[in-house]
Amino acid sequence: MVSFLLGQQKGYTKFPCYLCMWDSRAREKHWIQKEWPLRETFQAGMPNVTHDPIVSRDKIVFPPLHIKLGLMKQFVKALNPDNESFHHLVYTFPALSYDKIKAGVFDGPQIRTLIRDKNFIQKMNVREKAAWLSFVDVIQNFLGNRKAPNYEMLVSKMLSGFRDLGCNMSIKVHFLYSHLDKFPENLGAVSDEQGERFHQDLMTVEERYQGRWDRHMMADYCWGIKRDCPHKAYKRRSYKRKFCPDL
């Protein structure tokens, strides 16, 4: 959604960060180089920017839920499928396919289930346990309503654990590694409801266009939002029966 608002090129691009020129393909520098050249301007024609942004970069807020899901994805992808910790994930979530678990596709309730599961920690080795416990500390003391005074140390400890585990640095891990000062004071005050609604609405439009992403699909979606005025009075009344719950 951030890429859509800022006019960035979608997919696995070379410079996905909207704050700096972080090279996502230079993996040998990811855990070494922390400072990258800043993006001076943000307009069409710049690296991985195809359209002029429709909102200012200053109004973009890091969504805590998506940061959490991205961290969980990198943690699971770094697990060895032959280890007991990975087998525990397969047994704990039988409804998920093996490919989804291997790709680290989990939601918020599933992550909370694993946090409460003490058997999951017992199945881990030393490096996996260190990375997982530090990840839980960041969730409870940074990516929520409570921001601990030592949040910088907690995030640094988690990133060190992820590096020792062999995790790749995604764009969400990069935000924590290089742009920790850009996070708001209270991440719990930032709601992901609008972002989740955007994804749910877009799924319906994608089914209509059979997964084809183009400007016509986005125009159809935006026009549907503009016409969505349930409280507007019309001259010609529709006699189609609708379900209206009692308020």
Quick synopsis:
The chain has helices at residues 2-6, 27-30, 64-77, 84-92, 98-103, 108-116, 118-122, 126-141, 151-165, 171-178, 193-208, 215-227. The protein has 247 residues and is mostly helical.
Set down the secondary structure blueprint:
Elements: H1 2-6, H2 27-30, H3 64-77, H4 84-92, H5 98-103, H6 108-116, H7 118-122, H8 126-141, H9 151-165, H10 171-178, H11 193-208, H12 215-227
Note the total helix count: 12
Beta percentage is under 5%
Large-scale geometry: globular
Please describe the biggest sheet, giving its number of strands, its sense, and whether it closes into a barrel: none
Question: Uncertain segments of ≥5 residues (pLDDT<50)?
Answer: none
Average pLDDT rating: 83
Structural class: mainly alpha
Order of helices and strands: HHHHHHHHHHHH
Q: Gyration radius, to the nearest Å?
A: 21 Å
Helicity, as a percent range = 40-55%
Task: Please tally the β strands and state the result.
Answer: 0
Separation of termini? Answer: 33 Å
Domains counted in the coordinates: how many?
2
Task: Describe this protein's structure.
Helix content is 49%, strand content 0%. The chain has 247 residues and is mainly α. The longest helix is centred in the middle third of the chain and has 16 residues, at 126-141.
Describe the structure using short key phrases.
about 250 residues, mainly alpha, about 0% strand
